[in-house]
Write a structure and sequence with these properties.
10% strand, 70% helix, alpha+beta, rod-shaped
Length: 710
Amino acid sequence: MFRSISTRISYIVAAVVVASTLATLVFTSTTLEEDMIASQGRTARNTIRMGMLYLQEGHQALSRYRKHAFSDRKQAIKDAMDIFISQIDGFYELYKSGQITEKEAKEAAYRLARNTRYFNNDYFFIYTDKLDSLAHPTRSLEGRNLSKVQDSNGYAFGPDMIRKAVREGGGYLHLVWPRLSETDSNPKIVYVKGYSKWHWIIGTGAYVDDIEASVERQKHDLVKEMRKGFSQIRLADTGRLFIFNNEKQVLVPPLGSGADFDKTINLNTGNTLIHDLKDVGKLGEWRLDYKVRRQDGEIVERQSYVRFFAPLGWYVASTVPMDEIYAPVEDLIMKQGAISFIILLMTIGVIYYVIRRVCLPIRSVSKVAYHVSKGDLREARKVFAMATDKGHLKRVVDSFETGREKRFDEVDYLVKSIHTMLQTLNSLVSQVQKSGDQVTGSALKLGTAINQLEAAVENQAAATQELGSSSREISATSQELARTMNESTSVAVSTGDLATQGVRDLSEMGRAMDAMRDASGGIFSKLSVINSKAANISSVVTSISKISEQINLLSLNAAIEAEKAGEFGQGFSVVAREIRKLADQTAMSTLDIEKIVAEMLSAVSAGVMEMDKFRKQVENGVNNVALLGDGISGVVNQVQTLTPRFESVNEGMQNQSEGAAQISKAMLQLSETSVQTKDALSEFVSITEQLANSVALLEEEVAVFQVEHD
């Protein structure tokens, strides 16, 4: 699929960058959406809190107004009560002074209670301490016991009125009671106080609906202020705040909403939006996500936050379209995506450039390793001179030669190591090839010398066999001569003829002895040649041993360089191990050859010594034969006069026979030595052939490498 490692790495990095960018965009999108929703929520909550603070200030103002108004109203009621009681006291003083009767005094008090009005048609009433009505503007109540009467809210105020008036000396009650001549009930503050002189409970009260009306007006003003303030507050683009109460009435609608906003339906639940927001506010929760249908029929998603303000029973809520929350996120994502795409293109370009700068030298070094694995060191060296990596390899090699390697990185040091390994390998293989050629030549020369030596030994063996045969013949002749000499003692007459025949035989024996002397000289010279050749073989074996050691050292250095090269030098490491094995085999074969050559030298040296001894014996034999011939000639001339000397001659012939036997024995030993020498040479030839095969195998392995010779 990919053509180069730089393209592959660039694709992988690009895929990683694209994946990380997409993951970042997805994560950023999700995070931004959550953050925007959370931020919008915080903004809405903070805005609602501000509205709550404004409501709290308005409520506190209303509370202060109501408190002061009620306090003032209560004080006014109490003041009116004090004035009314002072008038009752006047009647009581008239009664005590005797000016009027007690009944007249009480009637005067009753008339005063029925007819006195103040403020907004407020009045007084007089009850007994058992709540029997004595005087009341509503005459229908007079004479009735009101201890169990309830106000419009169902409040049975009798027991509390007795307690406050009689026991506590006065107190206030809050009732809901209709005005005089009216049926509608209104809130009223009643102040009661006991009048112990006549055991009465005197009371009066003031309606406070005007205070509540004023409070409502101030609430209305507060709503106006809130509407005005909310119109200035905006959440997102069109999000607004609004207020509704416990009765689900929208007090401050969101700006821009229709008149029927309170009837808006939450499509998720089917309830009105105000209903669901009220439930959320009552539960103390903040957020409500919902769907509504706009006036144009489109369904939109919205988000609201709501908070309940218990003192007024109001709810402050917000409403924001969800698409306005997501709009900034989408815009930001688009911008970030464009920026990320530009950064991605720049990153891919930079990464491709950097990776290509790194991978081009690696690809060239890989070509070098490929050529080395194929054994083509010449092509491997040519790669360093080519411009496939824009001349990077050549610059690195040249820079290392100038000593500027401090600025190089790991790839440059790898290039240097491969270049150094290539040079070392080229030199090593060249040296191994040269050494192989030398070993091959030496092996050929050694084989030729061994063949010559083998032929010489064969000739020596043949000559030795002939010499042994001649020695046996001499021994037999000597024995026969001894018998003849024994017979010559008794037959003196035929001595002359026999002596003549002996002269002829001695002549023949002289010629045989001369031939034997010549043969022993040839054998001696050939054994000398064998000895010198064996010495030459020993020197050649020493040279082979040194070559083997050098090959072993070279293979060890090659293995070290291959280990330094890592996986790129594994192929050459195998070759180095094979070379080391061949060097070890050559060393072992050389040791065997050296041992055999040493044995051969020992045997040949012994043969030379024995042959020299034999040559001396043959020369002595020749001299003896010459002397014997002279003696026989004298015997022939003086045979008649030398008969008594035949015994001494017989004795000499016996000695000659023994010497011939010794010569025959020495020749047998020489023959056996020659056979052993021939066997040793045959074994040496076999070992030489093994050495030649090992060298040929080494040359075959090394011939794979094509090197440049200096």
